[in-house]
Amino acid sequence: MKIIDTMTPGKPFLSLEFFPPKERSEWPAFFRTVDRLNEVNPLFCSVTYGAGGSTHGDSLEIVSRIKQEHGMETMAHLTCIGAHEGDVRSFLDQLARAGADNVLALRGDLPQDSTPESSPHRPLLHASDLVALIRDSHPHVGLGVAAYPEVHPEAASTAADLAYLRLKLDRGADFAVTQLFFDNRIYFDFIRNAREHGITKPIIPGILPVVSLKVIKRIVSLCGTVMPPEFLAQLEEADRRGGAAEVQKLGVAHARRQAEDLLANGAPGVHLYTLNRADAVLEVTDGLRLR
Questions:
Q1: Residue 18: C-alpha distances to residues 21, 58, 104, 197, 225 (Å)
Q2: The domain containing residue 238 runs over which residues?
C-alpha cells in the first residue's frame, strides 16, 4: 500500500528511520530494536542503505523482514547518482517481489571532488530524474522525497531550492520528509514558504533525538543543519557535568518538546531519525497525543 494512502488529514502520526547494521552478526539486536519500537505504532518505517557500504541486498532483506515479519509498512531509501537505470529498475522489481510498495527517492552523496554532471550515468543526475523514472516504470510505487528547511547546501537560493522540491513533487512524488532541524520555527517558516510557492503535498518534519555530543556534531557537519548556539552550549555543559547519559537526557527532552509543538500546530506527523536507539525514541514518544 502507498504510504500516502494511509495518511489522514487531522490525524497526526509517527514514523521512524532505521539504518542497517554494518555486520550481519548485529542483525538479531537490530530486529529486537525494531520489535521494541513497533509499540509506538509507526505509520511507516524508512530504511537507509547499509551502513559502511553494505549492499542494496542488505537493505532489501531488512525492508522485507520488517514488513513481512514485524508487520510495519516500509519505505526503502534509493539513491541514483552514479547508478545505471537498469540497476534501479531491477532494485524496484526486487522490492515489488518482496511486497515493499514505497521508496524514498534521493540523489545520494556525490563522490568527493565531483559534481552531478561528472556522473558517468548522466540520465540520473538528480532526485527529480529518479522520481520520473520510478513513476514511469513502476507507477504503483509510493514515493517520498527529501526536503531541506534550512536550504540544501548546494542550492543557489531558497527560491531555487523550493522550485526543485516542487519539481520532485510535480514529477510524481507523494510527500516529502525534511532533513533534521532543532528549531521548529524553521519548519513552520519553511512550510509557509512552500505553500506560497505552490507546494501543497504533505511535508513531514524530521526530528533527531540527540544521544551523543560527538555524534550530533558529526551529523550536523555533514548535513548543514544549524545547531542553535544555546542548545549546543547546554549539550556541552551536560557532557561536562555527566557525560553521555546527561547529553541523552537533554537531547531527548528537546526532541520531545519539538514533537509536541509540531503535532499541536498542524504538522501531518513526526518522522524520527532513530539511530537504532530504542530507549531514546520510546522516551520521546511516550504519551504523545496523536489524534
A1: 9, 13, 13, 32, 20
A2: 3-285
Which alpha helices (H) appear in 144-277, and where do they start and end?
Answer: 158-170, 184-196, 213-223, 229-242, 244-264
CB burial of residue 9 (10 Å; 0-12, 13-18, 19+): exposed
Has this prediction a pTM greater than 0.90? yes
**291 assigned to some structural domain:** no
The domain total for the chain is 1
For residues 179 and 187, give the distance between their C-alpha atoms in angstroms, rounded to a whole number. 10
CB atoms within 10 A of CB 117: 7
Counting residues of the chain whose pLDDT is more than 90, the rounded percentage is 72
Which DSSP state fits 177?
E
CA 198, CA 27: separation in Å to the nearest integer?
A: 43
Q: What pLDDT digit, counting tens, does each position of 83-122 carry?
A: 788 888 988 999 888 888 999 999 886 655 555 555 555 5
CATH number, domain at 30?
3.20.20.220
Q: Which of 184, 180, 178 is nearest to 257 (CA)?
A: 184
Instruction: Please compute the mean of the pLDDT values over residues 231-245 and round it to a whole number.
Output: 94
Name the percent of the chain in helix, strand, coil, to the closest 5.
50, 15, 35
Q: At what angle do helices 244-264 and 213-223 cross, to 10 degrees?
A: 50
In a domain, 89, yes or no: yes
34 HSE (CA, 13 A, CB side): 28
pLDDT class for 176, splitting at 50, 70, 90? very high
How far apart CA 37 and CA 245 sit, in angstroms, is 21
Annotated active-site residue in 17, 230, 246, 260 = 17
Which pLDDT score, from 0 to 100, does residue 36 have? 96
Q: Is 17 a catalytic residue?
A: yes
